Amino acid sequence: MSCELCGSDEVAGSFDVEGVGALEVCGTCLPQLQPGAALDADHWQCLQGAIWSESAAVQVASYRIAARIDADWARELLACGALSDELLAKARVEAADAVKVVDAHGAELRDGDAVTLIKDLDVKGAGFTAKRGTLVKGIRLTDDPGLVEGRVNKTAIYLKTEFLKKA
Question: What pLDDT sits at residue 93?
């Protein structure tokens, strides 16, 4: 028996894909499938084959993992994956509900939102201070729900959500 996601011969256990079924996975895949777990994007290149599986659980799991990876190949995979409308709806609901990113006041943040800094922040390595009240447009979510990526003074930086307010 092999891992249904990456094909490894070393199966470590079973993972339940909520609403779809279970799949057998290896010791490398299993801990990364947990909500909020950090992902090794290089390891998940295997999804390019797995998403075409005949197993609904493998297809949905592949979609949900790819949705959490910020890489061109993952975005292309999501665009060309051939999930049925029913499976695609299940995959998208879970991917959206997996981890919510919230600002200092509990408002949910999404990719593309604008936020305002609620505290002066020293930007280490860039030699400037991002001032309170600075508007940061077009943020991008990261794998860490406590951080978002944004541009301040034309510099891409990571910002802690505890110092942000949704604009």
Answer: 66
> Measured between alpha carbons, how far is 109 from 128 in angstroms, rounded to an integer?
25
Residue 24 near residue 3 (C-beta atoms within 8 A): yes
Nearest CA to 50 among 11, 81, 93?
81
d(CA 111, CA 137): 10
Does this model's pTM top 0.85? My answer is: no
**Helix (H/G/I), strand (E/B), else coil: 135:** strand
Per-residue confidence band for 154, with pLDDT thresholds at 50, 70 and 90:
very high
Q: Which long-range contacts (CB under 8 A, 24 or more apart) does 70-73 make?
A: 70/41, 70/140, 70/142, 70/143, 71/41, 73/45, 73/48
Name, in order, each residue with C-beta under 8 angstroms of 21's C-beta and a sequence gap of 6 or more: 55, 56, 57
Mean pLDDT of 127-149: 91
Residue 47, phi then psi, degrees to nearest 5? -65, -20
